[in-house]
Amino acid sequence: MVLLFILVIIRCFQKAMYLKSGSFNALREDNSSKVNMVQGRDEEGLDNFVQEAKDIMNLVEPLGTPVSPSLPYQLFLDFPCSYSDRLTMVRNFRSLEHESAFDAIEEGLSAMTSFLYTKDDDGLYLAFTNATAPVIFRLLTSTLAQAMIPAANVLLLTHAASMADTGHKKGYIGLDARFTAVLLHLTLGLEVVYACVQFEFRDKFSGKILQRSIIGLLAHNRRHSMLRRIAGWLWCKDLLEGFWCGEPSYSCKEITELVRLHVETGWREHIREPYSYRMFNDTRGEWTLARNGCLQQLGWSIRRPFDESTILWHLATDLYIHHTSTSPDDHVSSRRCKEMSNYMVHLLSDNPDMLISGSRKRLLETADKELEVLLEGEWTQLDKNELTRRIFEKCGSAACLSQDTPSLIGDAWKLAQSLLTVDETRIWELIQGVWVEMLCFSASRCRGYLHAEALGTGVEYLSYVWVQLAYTGMETFAEKLQRRERNSFDSDEALV
């Protein structure tokens, strides 16, 4: 019984230490003391970094002995990293096979999740903090507690069994002894199950990519208008719409692979010096459109504010998919495009600050109202596919085109019409490339704090893309904020 009391005392101290040290503010305060001066961040230092990173990323085979990169705390704190540290990270990541590379991304996110929230792997604590006396005490007490749990259970079970056998001699009630033994057996079983689950799912997330479709949600709302009205009276309309958003996608690994191929192609074909490096990091569809000779024809759709471009391409992707027949060879590409499109709308609806700072969630309401006006008088029981085809037909009417006021739906229809003129052999490569660029653009402009906050409720898929970009040498959020443009003033004469 003494072991049990010692275990409880240790757990009490651990709880207080977790509350004090296991937070984002504690991470910032602890690491602020060991931040060093970051030198060599001028154009010459960037040029050297670009050339060395390009050589590493252009290697055909993995580099040397596989070494899993560690996710630096600076990313979550939006602190600048030295180019030497970033090159080490790129080199280690390039040494991994594709399957191991995806696991390395999950390991990095899992380590920060453990530090901030779950506390299920205190060995990772040293990766984010200084090895001070409180930190060492925390690791020792955690290790001691984990070692004492099975020992305490075994001893207590033995003691309970002996009480059941000798209860009539020592005055114990046999029923109480048996009941205690049952409880202790159940406790031991829970500890064993927890240990097995923790071992099996270590460094793994669900891999869900949440989905939201503007037209799909509209179809649900029209079919269940009374239920939606009741939910509005009860202030739970958002909860109801969450159930109607559709099943999540589990293509996390496949879409992350598309991001990797996009970045590697950029290093191989486009990036040559700091200017092209920054240009590639700033693209949100232009590079794909230019490669396919469609920038002049479709460039207007991505020169809009990013949240508007997201809605335009989301609606245009849905309209195109349901207006054309997809061959078996293109089915996978069309499904990936739809998954990325729906995920970006999910971000705009449920996590707009992660999409990009200043995103306007009310644009979704604007698009929904425009669709309601367009479909006024139509049968309400249409499913999503039928409703999408009907929207395409209605948008092509003279009444819709004669409107002088700007319209998200009208512009999305024009974009879908333009996509219909693109060669069928490369249309899905084009749409897929634009969505991959939009994902990268959004991930690279999301604050580290928002990624850390999202880990508390699972993980947003955008965090996978964010870590992938950091591991492959792309520009980080801190570098974007602190970069100097080409027209910076470098002399007294420039100011005269």
How is this structure best described in words?
The structure is a single chain. The chain has about 500 residues and is mainly alpha-helical. Helices cover about 70% and strands about 0% of the residues. The chain is globular, with a radius of gyration of 28 Å.
Distance between the termini: 83 Å
Q: What's the pLDDT, averaged over the residues? A: 79
Relative strand content: under 5%
What level of helicity do the residues show?
Answer: 55-70%
* Number of helical stretches of at least 4 residues: 26
Low-confidence stretches: 123-129
Question: Cα-atom Rg, whole angstroms?
Answer: 28 Å
Summing up helix and strand content along with how strands pair, one would put the structural category as mainly alpha
| Total count of strands | 0
Major sheet summary line: none
Element-level helix/strand string: HHHHHHHHHHHHHHHHHHHHHHHHHH
